[in-house]
């Protein structure tokens, strides 16, 4: 099986770090031209350098914009009016108790985690339909199915990603444009490492060991009993972005290490 995205333009939101950066590398390695986007120009440049280091000769474009805002989205649309592949990866998370999260925090999470992807999909899918081919991928989470008690506002936005993805897939039925959601579980990213830095310092374990211990404690239903690597998520995205996945749409595709009971979705 050869994933060949030569000639395809891929837009990956939130692509300067973590899963978004890993997805950008996987798509570039498969031959796509990838648009790397972030709010910080220095981080965008670092991401470009990282991709080129791992994928020499990668075809890349870049933009500095905050896609969590309407203004940032319009800046992207002006710079890149069309795309063949859209990966809505942009998202934020934190641990905050339900009773400590004000309306403004709920609104902020909804704007960044949900509305950003809605804006981009609304803009890019009509041209995909005209072309008779396209891929739209929403990065949801196992937290969208098994809402964590300490991240309820985050989990609700990830549930919304699932709903938008499934509904849009049905809206685009028969057009050649597929829409799917990817559900990562705990993944070894800079964000998770930062979240666990105090626990890592206290335990004396390595960051990876602490992350694996976190999974066993906080997600005991995990079958693999460890965090996933970014590449393990990115590889699934690359397949779903490819012509090989043409019969997969409206799906919630798990790469969560078995955290969620398979009967739950």
Automatic annotation (TrEMBL):
SUPFAM superfamilies: NAD(P)-binding Rossmann-fold domains. Coiled coil: none annotated. It comes from the Bacteria. Pfam families: adh_short_C2 (PF13561). Gene3D superfamilies: NAD(P)-binding Rossmann-like Domain (3.40.50.720). Belongs to the short-chain dehydrogenases/reductases (SDR) family. This is NAD(P)-dependent dehydrogenase, short-chain alcohol dehydrogenase family. It comes from Pseudomonas prosekii.
